[in-house]
Amino acid sequence: MKSFTAGKNEDGIKLIKFCEKVCPAMPKGLLHKAFRNKRIKINGKKQTADYIIKHGDLIELYINDEFFAPERKVEAADFSALNIIYEDENILLVFKPAGLLCHSDNKKQPNLIDMITSYLISKGEYDPQGEKTFAPALCNRIDQGTEGLVAAAKNHRALAEINSAIKNNLLEKTYLCVTEKPVKDGVYKAYLKRDLNAKKVQVKRQPFDGAKEIITQFSTLARGKIRLIECRLITGRTHQIRAHLAFLGSPILGDRKYGKEAAGLQSQLLCAYKLKFKKLPEDTLTGYLSGRQFSAAENSVTKFFCENTKISIKLS
């Protein structure tokens, strides 16, 4: 038997979700049997799987030790290069450079979430041994070869709310990219399908089996030998901007997957440079972010454009 006292990150989640987190090796059938046999209690009383946990609840699990998750261990990561654009008690907005992974891979390369986790541990804002179900998490992701703004949540409620905002199109994401060929300004629709084996997507003008609709708005900000394009995601699919521009005949400079290599470039010139929160529900933890906009205009995309066109640009 193990007992836990619910903290702020357990407040508001279903009891069964908590059990699945702390007992990941337990088959679901056995877990539901434990509920029926009164082996899962809240404050000394039997509760149903749908019970909503409250901060301070005593959770008692009369379950074999073999089903519990091992003690969480976090390897320290160097976070000295972490570029924080904005921070409060609930979220972090950081600028990820091109080449850095968002999450860990099997090669254990440096990655953004490990850097953020180590940073929060150093500040005393996250205790991996004290937390039962939550770890700092990214709300949005960008490709390894793309630079730009990434939002991270410091607690469970903020994570749920920001993810809900993204799902309901309440977080506007705007990108910059550099292309050689022009694309006419406007809103474009197409259909995209992922190929998990090739780690690539296919785009067609008309619907086809397994494809999802994509909508992207393109606006040319500056012209020269190359073009600086602002891209606003209306839908958010994997590789949407890269594949959509390539489909339109204007691949991003340096995009080896959907275009071609460019001399002196290690990755595609694409930057997630602006995040804008639309009208968020007022009765939420993160409602204070309504109408706020965050940008990172000083980045390698604009720098490269200016150096190669001799055109001076200023972004807000």
Architecture overview:
The protein has helices at 15-22, 28-36, 112-122, 156-167, 240-247, 300-309, and strands at 2-5, 40-42, 45-46, 58-61, 84-87, 91-96, 137-138, 147-153, 171-179, 186-195, 200-204, 212-223, 227-233, 270-277, 293-295. The protein has 316 residues and is an alpha+beta fold. The N and C termini lie far apart (57 Å).
Task: Give keywords.
316 residues; alpha+beta; Structural Genomics Hypothetical 15.5 Kd Protein In mrcA-pckA Intergenic Region, Chain A; Pseudouridine synthase; 3 domains; eleven-stranded mixed sheet; four-stranded antiparallel sheet; 6 helices; 15 strands; 18% helix; elongated
Short description:
With 316 residues, the chain is of the alpha+beta class.
Which overall shape is indicated by the principal axes computed on the Cα atoms? elongated
How many strands, what sense, and barrel or not for the largest sheet?
11 strands, mixed
Task: Give the radius of gyration.
Answer: 23 Å
Q: Using the coordinates above, name the CATH class of the largest domain.
A: Alpha Beta
Say which CATH homologous superfamily of the largest domain is assigned: Pseudouridine synthase
Number of helices: 6
Mean pLDDT across the residues is 93
Helix-strand topology string: EHHEEEEEHEEHEEEEEHEEH
Strand portion, in percent? Answer: 25-35%
Number of strands: 15
Assigned CATH architecture of the largest domain: 2-Layer Sandwich
